[in-house]
Amino acid sequence: MVYEVYLRSFADGNGDGLGDVPGLRSRLPYLADLGVDALWVTPWYPSPMADGGYDVADHRDVDPRFGTLADVDALVADAHALGVRVVVDLVANHTSAEHPWFRAALAAGPGAPERSRYFFRDGRAGGSAPPNDWISAFGGPAWTRVTGPGGPEQWYLHLFAPEQPDLDWTSPEVADDFDATVRFWLDRGVDGIRVDAAPAMAKVPGLPDAGHPPGASFASSEWVGNPHWDVDEVHEVFRRWRRIGDAYDGDRLFVSEAVVNGPERLARYVRPDELHTTFNFDYLKAPWDAGALRTVVDGTLAALAPVGAPATWVLSSHDETRHVTRFGRERSGAAVMGFDDAPPADLARGLRRARAAALLTLALPGGAYLYQGEELGLPEVEDLPAEALQDPTWERSGHTARGRDGCRVPLPWSGDAPPFGFAPDGVTPWLPQPASWASLTAEAQRADPASTLSLYRAALRLRRELPVEEPLTWLDLGADVLAFDRGPALRCVVNLSARPVPLAGLGRVLLGSGTPGEALAPDTAVWLAPA
Ligand code: GLC
């Protein structure tokens, strides 16, 4: 199981209200005790923080707000001593606008070789309109016009924020430099690399229009033949990196973030000579519905079998509404990256379902990714004051989409008032924590056997101990019930119906997400040892 550390919000070691590497290092025993196999840590690189660190100004260093390279070395050493691996986040589709390459490109002017590492193009309509109809994931056009010494000139491409100009991966210099970056981190002993925005890294030559209708959203899971997403040439990059990774000792892992159209397109990222695994966003985006979830599970396993890659299962991340909140809504599927305007949730129902979903997720064959705080049952913080919002989505959407800050609120560790042990007392965290989180701290839950933290700890321990087998075998307990065996050691039953499901004859209960009983209550799950 890989645990996503959203570094800014995990633990603040230096008292500036922002999480950092020493803070994370001090909490490693918690993660080892939880039963984490590996950490994926979000970017710690020097960054102006226009997109929370996904705007990287130097890929081979650490931002002083997050620590130093020596802190990273110490983190990796301590993690390894605890049997925990470390995966770093590689942002290679774009750089920060403050990256020396982009500054040089701006300074050099139209037509200069310095511009060939990015996409600079003349505008249409005599220069005043963007070069094509491509859109940004954070809203609005994917092009921004440069103002040079003589006035407005070319436009540059950014599929994310304007502070994140896209790199042109046909430039040999770009590819060579990222080879050096991959080696830099693998040489430091990290165990893997998470590839940010993987499907963005190749564009159709000539940059033709995508045909996006006016006001289109960045619905990449629906796009077919899009010229700026999931373009076939992108796979050359991953083959190149895989060759580098394979030359290292140990099992170095590449995992991609790839929101693409269906499991067959996704499977292309994990062909034997490409990345090892990829996040499964179809699972994350699925509503709380037995049919929909089963379709995703079957579709995922069927698509990955031919390429021999393990599945991954993920319910939440730093980009999506926390699933306690999502599952408490009528429309429980995930929205696109912070564009979530769904009505308020029934959080008690959401938590019941989230606990059941944890047992489902951890029983499925393959790897699971947990997002920090889901083991505490944290909900999305939906009432952050507008002036606290930092996600570029808020500005880019003209204040219509609040963005992703609500899932990024710093973790509550201990105590009964903010900063809840996230930072030294008296320090204000970079996003305000709700006072109601006093009952959700790791400390409070550690002592309570019925807590969500205790459920995750027990499930992760059993998951390691039980001799589960591939593949999964479905049982038929009714249309709204997901039930399957993983060999003779583990049976998982999840009740998504509105009625209790009798458990008699199904086996001995090992662990349940709800109150133990003769029957499985709606929105709960159970692990059994089949009789
Ligand atoms: C990925 C990250 C997200 C970031 C984007 C641009 O989707 O997960 O947080 O905003 O890439 O780098």
UniProtKB/TrEMBL annotation:
GO terms for molecular function: alpha-amylase activity. Residues 4-408 form the Glycosyl hydrolase family 13 catalytic domain. One of its GO terms (biological process) is oligosaccharide catabolic process. Pfam families: Alpha-amylase. SUPFAM superfamilies: (Trans)glycosidases (SSF51445). InterPro entries: GH, GH13_cat_dom, O16G_dom_2. Belongs to the glycosyl hydrolase 13 family. This is Alpha-glucosidase.
